[in-house]
Amino acid sequence: MELALEPEVPARAAPAASLAPAPLRSRTTAPAPADDEPVRMPFEFTGSGSEYFRIWVVNLLLTLLTLGVYSAWAKVRRLQYFYRNTRLDGAVFDFHGSPKAILRGRILALLLVAAYKISFDISAVAAVAVALLLAAITPWLLARAFRFKLANTSYRGIRFRFRGSARQAYARLILFPAMLALTGLFVWSLVASFRANPGVGVILLAGILPIVALGATVPLAHYALKRYQHEQADYGQTAFYYHGRVRGFFAVYGKALGLVFLGGIPAAIFGMLTARLSSWLMATMFGWLFALLYGLASAYAFYLFVRPYLEARLQNLVWNDTEVGMHRFESRASARHLLWIHASNLMLITLTLGLYKPFATVRLVRYRVASMALVAVGGLEDLRADHGADDAGAAGQEAGDLFDIDIGL
């Protein structure tokens, strides 16, 4: 979901007396008076699957008829629908992005993808050079994407802002693209080394170790991304603050990796039990179909068990350590509930040949939005407006979307 507050099913509001306010460590605001009681304001999504189905169908048809050109206008319609149906304290959000700006960003993203694809057809050196270039501009793309998203998002007529600069992005976010580029170089050296000396030791040293090193940087890179993203955001003139620690990200990703290994045990047992049947099926004329279906089943298993866990735990981890002014956010997303939503959505989308997809999207968004709340201290009157315009480009946002980088606030 691409909401400004990435909200997610509201837990039932607890009595005010049971909600002890978390210690607020804001940089510019004084501590709240002792007699100010925190008020839990849950987020709410009021959209319906039938409403979004009509928007989805029209967007799909016009995008096909215009060979993809209308996709920028379709994105604006989609975001406006979801933003305008997200409520907090009786008011709604809104999206003000320009379809033309988004279209220009998508053209740039397509050019980057084309350059990456063509480089592989030229030579390995060209492919490595383009990969290094893409890694080098990734922090700039992220900074532009955050700025465009927040500058075009409003709540109660007040715009959000992103203060982060490209220089700050390179200082804080260069780790992951640098490791990605180094891993690309290691893989290239692995291919060259394997051709010269196809040994197991070469594969382990030149291939597996760099990938393990890259995987170890993912929690650290994700932490740095969220810290940069949240600490540089403003609502009007009121700043967001982030107090999370990196060890929480390592814990979540470590448990997710454990789930992957645990899930591999029954898969391995099933593979051994069906080895003879599998070899017979692969030898038939329908072997390609069996391989395809088996691969899809494996992907679905990961999707159904690991993704809901990561979605719920990371959402709670990030937002429970985020504040805006004197107020803090609260997230109570459940991995089990998300697992049920994803599994049932997948079954219904398959049975309806894809027609249930807009209903599934609304169902998922409703849960994720409603699992979020703002715990306000003394009301929201301290949130001040800033009516200055922020002319942010869409290039970074669209490139991030196309490269499947999760950069939503």
Structure characterization notes:
- With 409 residues, this protein is an alpha+beta fold.
- 62% of the residues lie in helices and 11% in strands.
- The chain is built from 13 helices and ten strands.
- The chain has a ten-stranded antiparallel β-barrel with strand order 1-2-3-4-5-6-7-8-9-10, surrounded by five helices.
- Helix 5 (166-173) crosses helix 7 (200-231) and helix 9 (275-283) crosses helix 10.
- The chain is globular and about 70 Å long.
- Residues 1-33 and 403-409 have low confidence and may be disordered.
Helix content: 55-70%
Strand order of the largest sheet: 1-2-3-4-5-6-7-8-9-10
Number of strands: 10
Tally the helices: 13
Structural class: alpha+beta
What would the principal axes of the Cα set say about the shape? Answer: globular
Radius of gyration: 23 Å
What is the rounded distance between the termini?
10 Å
> Mind describing the biggest β-sheet?
10 strands, antiparallel, barrel
Portion in strands: 5-15%
What letter string, H or E per element, gives the SSE order? EHHEEHHEEHHHEEHHHEEHHEH
Poorly predicted ranges (pLDDT <50, ≥5 residues)? Answer: 1-33, 403-409
Brief write-up:
The protein has 409 residues and is of the alpha+beta class. It has helices spanning 49-65, 71-84, 99-122, 124-151, 166-173, 175-196, 200-231, 246-273, 275-283, 287-319, 335-351, 357-370, 395-402; strands at 38-45, 86-88, 91-95, 153-155, 158-162, 233-235, 238-242, 322-324, 327-331, 372-377.
